[in-house]
């Protein structure tokens, strides 16, 4: 357990620094990262659900769809990315309908595609986009760290014993308050403003992060796998590391669509920044 924890911490630090550097540069390098991340998530998803073995046509259609999605993400065409994700998910589900796994294979396109799209749209090419990324990182990472260590130290009632036996209500609650504190601190330091909207947004994103963690745990239990992959020491796969982040980013993306009234473009600012400035 100590070795696994050490690997987990080292992997988290290295990956965290790499992602922060890419987020700092933004632009094309970060969009390429988001596209590659989407591809890795989809690879792990298809491996988990045994897509190639169950439906070769759906497997091929899925990767063709992911190729288009990646192209649009890199090209900063978020509206086209959304269309490609929705069309691709439907096409994969139809192609896999004879296997009985159509909805699950189509869901993989949605999950992987929107993971990459939400992060790319969140960062955007503006200073507000960088603030938005820092804000979401702070909420998610503080939630993850506090939930893990407080849950282990305090124990108590299990949060979802049939899905993830190690998670507790104490960890979830302390994780949420840690996310609220970290996100609010970033907002105050960078935007020099407060308001009740910011801690509410932090709480929503913290809960979304924890739901993402539970969803990924549920998927692994459903398909009887310990980890989504083996790429990251101490964490398993890419999905194991970014499950909470992509759910929080997608929640921010949805909030942005409601506030902005449409798919964001690179000239109109970062979704999460709009959400922050709406308070």
UniProtKB/TrEMBL annotation:
The keyword Repressor does not apply. Pathway: Lipid metabolism; Phospholipid metabolism; CDP-diacylglycerol biosynthesis; CDP-diacylglycerol from sn-glycerol 3-phosphate: step 3/3. GO terms for biological process: CDP-diacylglycerol biosynthetic process. It catalyses: a 1,2-diacyl-sn-glycero-3-phosphate + CTP + H(+) = a CDP-1,2-diacyl-sn-glycerol + diphosphate. It is a multi-pass membrane protein. GO terms for molecular function: phosphatidate cytidylyltransferase activity. The chain crosses the membrane at residues 12-45, 57-74, 104-122, 128-150, 171-190, 196-215, 245-263. Keywords: Cell membrane, Lipid biosynthesis, Lipid metabolism, Membrane, Nucleotidyltransferase, Phospholipid biosynthesis, Phospholipid metabolism, Transferase, Transmembrane, Transmembrane helix. It is found in: Cell membrane. It holds the Pfam family CTP_transf_1. Its EC number is 2.7.7.41. InterPro entries: PC_trans. GO terms for cellular component: plasma membrane. Belongs to the CDS family. This is Phosphatidate cytidylyltransferase.
């Amino acid at each position: 357990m100590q070795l696994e924890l050490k690997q987990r911490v080292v992997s988290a630090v290295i990956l965290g620094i790499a992602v922060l550097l890419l987020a700092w540069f933004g632009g094309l390098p970060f969009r390429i990262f988001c596209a590659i991340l989407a591809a890795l998530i989809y690879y792990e998803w298809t491996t988990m659900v045994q897509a190639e073995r169950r439906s070769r046509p759906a497997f091929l259609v899925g990767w063709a769809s992911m190729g288009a999605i990646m192209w649009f993400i890199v090209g900063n065409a978020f509206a086209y990315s959304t269309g490609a994700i929705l069309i691709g998910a439907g096409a994969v589900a139809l192609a896999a309908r004879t296997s009985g796994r159509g909805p699950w294979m189509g869901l993989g396109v949605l999950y992987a595609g929107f993971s990459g799209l939400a992060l790319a749209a969140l960062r955007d090419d503006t200073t507000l986009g960088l603030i938005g990324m820092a804000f979401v990182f702070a909420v998610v990472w503080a939630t993850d760290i506090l939930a893990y260590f407080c849950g282990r130290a305090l124990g108590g009632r299990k949060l979802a014993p049939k899905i993830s036996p190690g998670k507790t209500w104490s960890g979830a609650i302390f994780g949420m308050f840690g996310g609220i504190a970290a996100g609010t601190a970033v907002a105050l330091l960078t935007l020099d403003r407060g308001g009740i909207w910011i801690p509410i947004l932090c709480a929503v994103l913290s809960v979304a992060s924890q739901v993402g963690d539970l969803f990924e745990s549920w998927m692994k239990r459903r398909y009887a796998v310990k980890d989504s992959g083996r790429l990251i020491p101490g964490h398993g796969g890419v999905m194991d590391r970014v499950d909470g982040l992509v759910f929080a980013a997608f929640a921010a993306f949805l909030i942005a669509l409601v506030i902005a009234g449409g798919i964001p473009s690179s000239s109109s600012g970062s979704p999460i920044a709009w959400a922050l400035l709406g308070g």
